[in-house]
Amino acid sequence: DTEVTQTPKHLVMGMTNKKSLKCEQHMGHRAMYWYKQKAKKPPELMFVYSYEKLSINESVPSRFSPECPNSSLLNLHLHALQPEDSALYLCASSQDASGSQSQTSEQYFGPGTRLTVT
Amino acid sequence: QKEVEQNSGPLSVPEGAIASLNCTYSDRGSQSFFWYRQYSGKSPELIMFIYSNGDKEDGRFTAQLNKASQYVSLLIRDSQPSDSATYLCAVRDPGRRALTFGSGTRLQVQP
Questions:
Q1: pLDDT by residue (tens digit) across A1-54?
Q2: Which chain B residue lies closest to A38 (C-alpha atoms)?
Q3: Along the 111 residues of chain B, how does pLDDT read in single tens digits?
């Protein structure tokens, strides 16, 4: 089973709202990721968590705040977003958490949350 | 600046033909390579990964890796209209868990 779930599927929020995106995996993976994807562009890495600790922040604005409550869950808290933040937000997970070139580094994506900021 | 290059397409092939998708990468230290399929409005789906030079086959898909030439390709045999999608090549950054994606190649399989 390589399932990663994300909620909600769609989200419309105003620029003054606070909302959260949720991601869950039950594959025992120890690394989890947030990506942002704009139309007709490849996914762009935002954050990486390894063993529930933030290991990579790709200089993401502070209006995006990640949280990893446990090894199966990953949240992305949103506050004071801009219309240009509208995109598909993708969560992914992988078994590998060592940073090595092991054969457990395949990343599996969830279905994504389509976010529209008005 | 690590780069992963793909031809954006569209690559148009007739049903039943072999589709050949290509990708080059700039970081000679890269060792892990992935192909994702993405249908319009959906999330990327991992279809192949390859770590060693040579060919790796899975059903109708074959991934080919040539580290000396910094080149990875995906062959789809007996292409079907349902294969019409964008194919993303991804390369894992050495020493990091991050993937660098190419811009994707749009494949159209004509019935």
A1: 669 999 999 999 999 999 999 999 999 999 999 999 999 999 999 999 999 999
A2: B41
A3: 679 999 999 999 999 999 999 999 999 989 899 999 999 999 999 999 999 999 999 999 999 999 999 999 999 999 999 999 999 999 998 778 789 999 999 999 999
Query: Which residue does chain A place closest to B32, by CA atoms?
Result: A101
Q: What is the 3-state secondary structure (H, E, C) of chain B?
A: CCCEECCCCCEEEECCCCEEEEEEECCCCCCCEEEEEECCCCCCEEEEEECCCEEEEECCEEEEEECCCCEEEEEECCCCHHHCEEEEEEEECCCCCCEEECCCEEEEEEC
Residue A67 touches chain B, beta carbons under 8 Å? no
Interface of B with A (CB under 8 A): 31-32, 34, 36, 42-46, 49, 51, 88, 92, 94-99, 101-104
Q: How far is B31 from chain A (nearest CA, A)?
A: 7
Q: Do A48 and B97 touch (CB under 8 A)?
A: yes
